[in-house]
Each structure stands twice: as structure tokens, then as C-alpha cells.
Here is the input.
Amino acid sequence: MGKKIRRIIMAALLVVFLGSTAVILYVQRQYRISEELYSQASGQYTVSMQEEPDADQQTSAPIQVDFDALRAENADVVGWIYCEGTPIDYPVVQCADNDYYLHRSYDGSYSASGAIFTDANNRAGFVDCNTIIYGHHMKNGSMFACLSEWEEQEFYEEHPVIWLLTPEQDYRIVLLSGCTTSAHADIYTIYPESCEESDLYVEKVLAQSDFQPVLQPEGTGRHVLLSTCAYVFDDARYVLFGELVPADSAGGRRIREGEGRSQE
Here is the structure.
């Protein structure tokens, strides 16, 4: 009887092991599919421009995006977010709810990595006083997993600016604050227009920062909050907050065939 029980236990453990292995292989395969998809998108829809030596002094975006072709694939595309030296190099989408792109790529296909998307309650065109952009914290470091790297002052000083390109205008997101917060915190309040409450909101966000900003705000009145999951407590999030500053050149230039960025 004892041998029979041991065989049953061993068989059960084998089933669990095989099932766990299958799940791991499936997840790894989904990661590879997502990485390949976004790498192809970067190569197909963007082109590198000549860059200036210091990112904090650069006045025009280091890439340009073919939004005509990109939006022909999916009309939900509202921009492209890019930060040199990090994995952040993705289309940005927006639709009528905040669940749709949790498990869909920028082209609408299923993806465990989801997409980078703006809050459904924000107005189109990044015209609100503050716009929220979400992205998953993927274990392979993709999407917005690197946001928590800005906890370190040295990393911030190496990456004080993130680029946001749109069909109408290119922007610098001049980073002013980064912190861990709750998914239910009032930091996720959206203010369509500047007001006394929004000014107090900005002051509160700046006071929570893990880093000391080296760039000063220009007073544009528009901000962006980048948000991803953190795993330090239940429903924790890491957020980056920055001022949206128009750049010299507008995006949307049509990229000629063969002109896209090479993916080495």
C-alpha cells in the first residue's frame, strides 16, 4: 500500500512539474513574441536622427515616427515614447477603457506584455493639465519595468528627459519627480485645466520625489505621469512625473522605404 501511495505522489509531482515547465515555456515564448513585435515596429516606423551630445540640452527628438503608416495599422495610436539607453521605445495608444490594452499589443493583437496606453479619461492630444500613461512591469525588463531605476539619483541624471512624439508635435518630458505610491492614491487624479487644486497636486508630487531634479520646470502647464506596477506592497505603483515641453520639430514625417532604424 505504501509503494502505491508513493507512486501516486510521484506521478502527481511529475504532473505538477511538467505543468509548471509548460507554463514557464509559454510565458517565455510570449515575451519573445512581444519583443520581436515591438522591435519590428521600431525598425519599421521610426528613424534615428542626428543626436546632440547632452540629452538634457537636446532640443529636437532623436527619432522621427511615420505616424501615417502607424495609424493606418491602428487608429488608436496617439504617440510614441522613447528614452535612449532604456527599453522605453514604444507606440502609445488610447481607447475608451483602461482594460483593452492590458493584454493587447499596439496593433490590437493578443500580447502578455500589453501596450503603453494613456488613461481613457484623458482628452486626446495630451492637452489636459496632466495625462497618465500606463505600462506593465514585465519581468524581462520590457515595457515600463525600468521606471523604478529612476529611484537612483545617478540614473536620473543620466536620463533626465524622456521623449514623447505625437502626430502633431514632439515633446520633451522633463522629469521632475519619481516615487512609489498606491494605485488608489490621489496622484492619479486628472485635471483637465490648470487650477489651484492642480497647482497643489504638482507641489505634492514634487515633494515625494526619490531624486533631486537638475532641470527646472518651464511653466508649460501640462504634465505627464508614467505609471507601472511595483512589488513593495499590495497595489504598489512606481510613477515618474514630468513637464511636457514642446520640442523644436514636429513628428509625423513619412519615412521612406529602407529608412527605418536597423535592429541589431
